[in-house]
Structures are given as structure tokens and as C-alpha cells.
Amino acid sequence: MSSRKYSQELVDGPNQAASRSMLRGVGFTSEDFTKPFVGIASTGAKVTPCNMHINKLSEIVEDSINNSGGKGVLFNTITVSDGISMGTQGMKYSLVSREVIADSIETVVGCLGYDGLIAIGGCDKNMPGCLIGMARLDRPSIFIYGGSIKPSNENTDYVTVSEKVGEFSKGEINEDQLIHYEKISVEGPGSCGGMYTANTMASAVEALGMSLPGSSSQDAVSKSKKDDCVSAGEAIMNLLESDIKPSDIMTREAFENAITVVIALGGSTNAVLHLLAIAHSIDVELELDDFTKIGKKTPVLADLKPFGSHYMSELNANGGIQPLMKLLLDKGLLHGDCLTVTGKTLSQNLENVTPYEKKNIIRDFDNPIKENSHLRIMYGNLAVDGAVAKITGKEGTSFEGNARVFNSEEEGVEAILSNSINDGDVIVIRYEGPKGGPGMREMLKPTSAIMGLGLGDKVGFITDGRFSGGTHGFVVGHISPEAAEGGNIALVENGDTILIDAENDQLILKVEDKVLDERRSNWTNPIKTPKKGVLAKYAKSVKSASLGATTD
Description:
The chain has helices spanning 7-11, 17-25, 54-67, 82-85, 94-112, 126-137, 158-170, 175-184, 197-208, 223-242, 246-249, 252-264, 270-281, 288-295, 312-317, 322-330, 346-350, 409-417, 444-452, 513-521, 533-541; strands at 37-42, 71-76, 116-121, 141-145, 375-380, 383-390, 398-406, 425-429, 460-463, 475-480, 497-501, 506-509. By secondary structure, it is an alpha/beta fold. The protein folds into 2 domains: 35-149 and 165-350, Response regulator (Rossmann fold); 375-547, Glucose Oxidase, domain 1, CATH 3.50.30.
């Protein structure tokens, strides 16, 4: 099998002289036309700290490919910032960006005949966007994580600031104190430092076998991250020579490994959405209930934020996720024969990994944070097609209360910050699903306000939107069918009794069927979907959150 499977069509022979002339214009030499072309998809941009350093990392990758016998070609795709747009209309574009990233990578690589692909991502949607693009193309590929930011000197981060807004609203801190945390909590490059969505997905990608060992936990500003980029050139050439493609790596068993690692780390609910979407793109059958099956036998072992005490940089200093994966493998919870981008199996990669020296971040199996998964897939008359909860047990495992209904995130936030939410309320924020948003906004702003007000164990929260990885509390999202599709969440009225039962994985609206039927007969969708632009296109094509909110 030629390692120039695609580029030879583009540049070989007299008929392709015009194509070669264009490439000579950007610096190609005659010798370069004999080498495999490797696209380097950079999500570098100065719009967010997560990605502000990634173009420099991409240049290291380009050099490593060229030094390993390939021809690296650097191009950019987009990134947005959940953290900056959180709680605004701009957040509607966040999940959409996953699709734009995937589409743009597929477009460039497919058009320009690159034989292989290395993608480098930082912020939340970068990882799944890049992996979906890789899956569609199915050419030898490697993902490199841009790395995690370190916490401030006061052990604070972005989520800290979000929760301090609630404390300010309650009068526990003044505006000067709030601004102090604002100024010191995010310094320099790197993705949010807890086991939020970026670090969750980076860990999932490593467990899938699509990044080099250690990539997921490295600090953004570190020698190890630069070394990760240097190693990528030789690794991609090995994949090209062996014709090892994403479809060889991202098997059903590999996805089971990723789910297991996400649960053990106490990862973000967004992992459910994204892993379903990636699996769909590579034609692997994966469904919501798989998370339940794996979750029954997988404990939460990591004492990491948001509900724990530690940051990813601390775990990295203690060995990263490799010793955790070795621990899970030894317990029979991982498939060791899965192929990875090293060209070796997972078991081979982990063979010489030593255990953690300190047990303060990753617990032993006999002392877990939680004996089974914190990610709960719930069903019931409020979630006929499923919902995703993130319940650690700290706030309990069951909550019943009276509905407080809001038709947008803004309405809900206003009520929370005005101190009009009472103990025992179940906050319902709807019309924020994939179609209804459109875009399925994250609810970090309202959930952080709840925690800052000290209501984390006193109120419930349900939505057809989704949650930031920084969210914690008694929360249920991804409710399907969503309100805009006529799901029963659209029929909830103030004062209705709602049961969130994480023991039996049920989400129940305690209203008689005949009453719901009457409400449905009078229901009309109050949301006006955009008529033009990317959000309009997204609303027309996006599928249910229970299917990963895919668009193809």
C-alpha cells in the first residue's frame, strides 16, 4: 500500500503540472512531491486562552513531519470559546462549531489530497470536531491536545469565577472581591484546568487510541507538550507506512475504553454527546444505554474538579491518566488488544507504566469516590428518549420538588440571581435543545449561580440544553425529545411535581396522562427558528441529543 495514496493523484505526472506549480508557489520543492502529504489542522486563535498557543505547536508538528520524511502542510480551522460566550446568545454557536470544525477539516483534506492528518485542538468542541473529521476521511491520523492550564496561585480557575458571581449576588463578597478573582483566575494558555469538557474529551481521545500516550494530561506550557508535538511526525509516518486508519483504531471496544476512562475520571456529561457523535461518524454502533451498562461496573476514582479537589495539572505531575488506565486494564475493565496511533496495542503502551506514587487524586478500587458511574442515563415520561444526569451523590441520589419553569436560559438566570428560587424547587429551562436553541447551550451560568448561592443540594435543575463540564449539583440535561419537538418538557407548568431518581435512573413528571394530553392539544411552539445562516442550517439538519446531536 502506497503511503501517497491521495497525493499522487494530485501531483504525479505531466497532467498535474499546473497543480504542482501552485504548490511550488507556497514553497514545495521537487523532492517534496515524492513524499506523503500530511495536513496539520490547527485550531489556533487568539479568541480564547485554550487555543492561543496552538499555532506555535502546529509549527513544531510541521517541522517534525518534514524531519521524518513527510511533507507537512499547515492549515487552520475555527474555534470558539464556551467560557466567553457562556450565558449569552453567542453560546448557541458553540456546539455548532463542532460540526463546522469537522466539515472544514474534511473539506481541506479531501480537496487537497493529504495522505494523513494531524489535528491540534484546545477548547471543548475541538476534540470531537477533529475526531469526526478524521473519521469521515479515514486516513492515517493523530490528535494532539493543546494541553491544560494551571490553576492560579490562589487555586482558582474559570469555574471559580462563575461560582463567585452567585456569592456576589447573595452578598457574600463585594464587587472588588469578584473582580479580584476575575483578574487572577485565568492566566496564560491552556484549556480549563479541571475535569471539565476539554480535559474529559482529551482523556477520551487518548483512551480511544487516537493520541499519543500522555497527550491528554500535559500542561499547555511545558516541555512535555512540545515533545508530544515532536513525536507526532515519526508517529504519523509509521501510520502511513502501515496504513493504520481511524477505522482500525476507533472500534466498538475502543469506545468502551473511552467511556470507562471518562467515568473513572468523573468526566463531563458532554462526553456522552460527543462520543455518540464520533461513533456515528466512524459507523460504530453506540447508544445511550451503553453508558449505563459500562457505568454499572466502573467506579469514579478521580478526586478532580468540579466536584473534587484537584486540577488536571496536579494529576499530570503525578503521572497523568496512563497509570489510571493501567489500573483499569489490570482490573479487566479495558480492552487491551485495541490498536492505537503508536502502532501498538493499548496493553503494549501501558506495559511499563508505573503506579501512582501518591493516592490523593486517583483512589484505589476499595476506596472510590463513587462505586459506580456519576453519569446517569435517565428515562421516564419527561425523557422518553433519554436524558443525561451528572450526579456524584454529594447532593443525594433522589430529589422531588415543584417545577419553576423558564423558556430560556436568560429567564432562569434572572430568577436565580434575584433570589426568587426556593428550597425544593426544580428549575426547568427549556427550548434550549439542539433544534430549539438552536445550538443546545450549556447551562454553566445558572448552575454556577445555584452553587454560589449555596443551593446545590436544595434545588433540582433539568433542561433540554446541556451542561458545562464545570457544572455540578443535582442536574439533568439532554432531555429528549426536546421542548421544540413537542417533548413533555414543553408541557411542564409551574408547581408540577418532578422526581429526579438517580437510583432507578428515572425522570418523572407527576402529572396524569389525560392532563398532559389536554395540555398538548393547546401547545404551540413559541420559538422562532432563524431563517438564514448557520443556525438555520443547523436547526434543519441536527438530530436528537440522544443520538449525539449529529448533522449527517
